[in-house]
Design a protein that fits this description.
Layout lengths: L7 E7 L7 H12 L5 E7 L1 H4 L6 H17 L7 E5 L5 H10 L4 H5 L2 H9 L6 H15 L5 E3 L5 H18 L7 E3 L34 H9 L19 H14 L3 H7 L5 H28 L1 H30 L5
Parallel strand pairs: 1-2, 2-3, 4-5
Helix pairs in contact: 3-12, 4-7, 4-13, 7-8, 9-12, 10-12
The structure holds tryptophan.
Tryptophan (TRP) binds next to strand 1 and helix 7.
């Protein structure tokens, strides 16, 4: 008899609270696309998470669909990956509620993202912002994944997901699989071009140091020409993350776009300085993003196709999610429907 080997499962999501950046592509989606054959993959648009901060409804709708088109344009084949919109799979909100009851006030209060966002949105510190990690734990645990690739900034949330899952399993037996956070090394953290100590963010409007996946070439070139290098006067392209974070970030970007190593990059720009280096990075980024932008625009016009992708995706996701939710409800003592 033929042996069927169950593929390991992988899951991740991105909030459509801002337009995807070069950082989202290099740091996340590009790595996901490379794993489609090895893993059984689930990726979603985390629209339920987006509303923890006030959104303009028309923008949120546009960004959610555009994000799906971008996932596909970045190489996530809907035939091989389950792509869905979080709010289409009602089990997320349901398990999210249940897990709030297994998340402690103290734990949620200690999340750095909650503290940061509360400081930035002092007039809207809502319950959703606070219990965000419980919903995120539900997103993960519903699918029993082996691996959850996330950016450095989300590691704390995945760790809390572990705590919640263990607490739940401790009471009710082995309900949830405990997933591993997985922070990809290369391009894990693309920093702002104007503040290389902060992540290139999609959510903050004030971040001028970012490049969007949909930016046209001239905008990208302008951003790289203005990029901060460093304050020393060596004018030397050398990888030194500690002392030259701006240059290091540009080297990471260049390396991710061209496949060159840091050594090769240092040699390439030996004696040439930042003035020559910055536009070269810009050009590499332009060429990396060009096919993605064009493909996204093409897919966005095909509404029927997009709809078929997210409907199929939600159906597949829902099938898996429902199994877990049923099990949880039974354990909790809810009467079966
Ligand atoms: N919180 C993540 C972010 O801000 C998005 C997200 C929501 C997520 N649920 C998730 C990521 C589950 C991984 C797994 O980017």
């Amino acid at each position: 008899m033929e042996e069927v080997v169950q593929k390991k499962r992988m899951l991740s999501g991105i909030k459509p609270s801002g337009d995807l950046t070069l950082g989202s592509y290099l740091g996340a989606i590009k790595n996901w696309a490379e794993r489609a054959d090895e893993y059984d993959c689930y990726y979603f648009m985390a629209d339920l998470h987006a509303i923890t901060v006030r959104q303009n409804p028309a923008d949120l709708r546009r960004r959610t669909l555009e994000q799906l088109a971008q996932y596909i344009a970045c190489g996530l084949d809907p035939e091989k990956n389950t792509l869905f919109i979080q709010s289409h799979v009602h089990q997320h909100a349901e398990l999210g509620w249940a897990l709030q009851c297994y998340s402690m006030f103290g734990e949620l209060s200690r999340m750095t993202q909650f503290k940061d966002k509360s400081a930035k949105n002092a007039d809207n510190i809502n319950g959703g912002l606070f219990s965000y990690p419980s919903l995120m734990a539900a997103d993960i645990l519903l699918y029993q994944p082996d691996l959850v690739p996330v950016g450095e900034d989300q590691k704390q949330h995945v760790e809390l997901c572990h705590t919640i899952a263990r607490r739940f399993n401790g009471v009710y037996g082995d309900v949830f699989k405990i997933p591993e956070p997985f922070v990809p090394k290369v391009g894990a953290r693309i920093m702002s071009l104007t503040n290389p100590l902060a992540k290139m963010s999609k959510s903050e409007n004030e971040d001028t140091g970012r490049v969007l996946v949909m930016d046209p070439p001239e905008v990208i070139m302008k951003q790289f020409k203005r990029a901060i290098t460093d304050s020393d006067t060596t004018n030397c392209v050398r990888y030194d993350k500690e002392n030259k974070p701006g240059v290091a970030n540009l080297m990471t970007i260049y390396s991710a776009c061209t496949g060159k190593t840091y050594d090769q990059i240092e040699q390439e720009f030996d004696g040439l300085g930042y003035g020559a280096f910055k536009p070269k990075v810009g050009e590499a980024v332009v060429e990396t993003l060009r096919p993605i932008r064009e493909e996204t625009l093409r897919i966005m016009k095909d509404k029927a196709y997009l709809e078929s992708v997210y409907r199929d995706g939600a159906q597949k996701a829902s099938y898996v999610a429902e199994k877990t939710l049923r099990k949880v409800y039974k354990k909790l003592g809810f009467v079966a429907k």
